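lol ok so funny story. i was supposed to be doing the assay writeup but got distracted and ended up predicting the structure for this chain instead. priorities right. anyway since i did it might as well share w the group, maybe its usefull for someone
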Amino acid sequence: MTDEAPSHASGSAWDHATDSADPSVAEHVQRYLRTGGADGYLEGGTTNLVLTTVGRVSGRPRRTGLFFGRDGDRYVLVASGSVPGRERLPDWYLNLVATPEAEVQVKAERFRVRARTAGGAERERLWRMMLGRAPIYRRYEAAARHEIPVVVLERVGPEAEGRLSSG
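and the output, tada:
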């Protein structure tokens, strides 16, 4: 594995990512990508994005679909996994902890992000926001033996700089 991040240009390694091992998630991701989010953006009662991380063991791109919320220009994810009460944190979250740089697709727009885990009052505020968007997280919280991480994704690169200078 090199220290260089994969290229984010069309036709890059990110386009050849391995999808989630969960067949329903992999199918959702494929529909989302095939239609530019027209089929899959609104699913499960809330908004969805496609997240591509760098595998912490393989160093290869890994892709999954996730519910998300918005907090200003930031994207918010909940690292609950897909099975309430499962002790292990989701692979996508562990990948982001190891390599915070990732790629996101929201509808047809693809961009680079840097992830961090929210803490303290920020985490509580964002957790409440996400509970309002996806009440299913209450079930995950009740079954969890640990605090469920809340992840904040912030744009990086030219897209972020353009947004900051124009706002």
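The chain has a mean pLDDT of 88. Helices lie at 23-35, 91-98, 120-133, 137-143, 158-166.
back to the writeup now i swear
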